[in-house]
Amino acid sequence: MMDNTQTEKMTLTDRVAEIFGGGQLYCAETSLKLLADAGDIDATPYIPLATGFCSGASRTCGQCGVVSGVIMGLGLYAGRSAPGEDYEPAYVLVQEFVERFEKRCGSLNCQALIGCDFSSPEGQERFREKRLIRKCIQYVVFGVGTALDILQEHGYAVDPARVGHASPQS
């Protein structure tokens, strides 16, 4: 197990490779955890909410888990905590994120992004054989980094260095 000094020296790519690439958590879970960590929020109670969003919404060829995890992570900062509260702050962050992700990556859909159908055994095998997790790791790094930049741009209290992200505002 690493101490805090070792963790602080890791880049965001290192953290994603360790958590997601190492099989501890999947895409949506990793994205949510890292966004929580950047704000010193305990992600433990929220990770189960992200599980079903991994692998393109549980292998249904749906939305990319990174997108779903980041949306949940943004909600930790700007989401409503009581009925009747304003939803616009969360909507603004999510809309900015979705626009940047889709512009850079070309899609929000898991199957379109990684080029395999998780709903079939053949697609799952292709994912393993072609080591497509490497693509997913890149999407997590981009997604989390982009979300952290957006949070900082809007004045939310996050410390990207906690998760190894070199923010443009640093």
- As a percent range, the share of strand residues is under 5%
Oligomeric form: single chain
Strand runs, count: 0
- Please summarize the sheet with the most strands: none
Q: Strand-and-helix sequence, N→C?
A: HHHHHHHHHH
Condensed summary:
This protein has 170 residues and is mainly alpha-helical. The chain has helices at residues 4-9, 12-21, 27-38, 47-51, 54-59, 65-78, 88-105, 110-114, 121-129, 133-153. It has ten helices and no strands.
Key traits:
globular; disordered N terminus; 170 residues; 10 helices
Q: Describe it for me?
A:
With 170 residues, this protein is an all-alpha fold. The chain has one domain (12-163). The protein contains 10 helices and no strands. The chain has helices at residues 4-9, 12-21, 27-38, 47-51, 54-59, 65-78, 88-105, 110-114, 121-129, 133-153. Helix 6 (65-78) packs antiparallel against helix 7. The protein is globular and about 45 Å long. Residues 1-5 have low confidence and may be disordered. It comes from Pseudodesulfovibrio profundus. It holds the Pfam family C_GCAxxG_C_C. This is C_GCAxxG_C_C family protein. InterPro entries: CGCAxxGCC_motif (IPR010181).
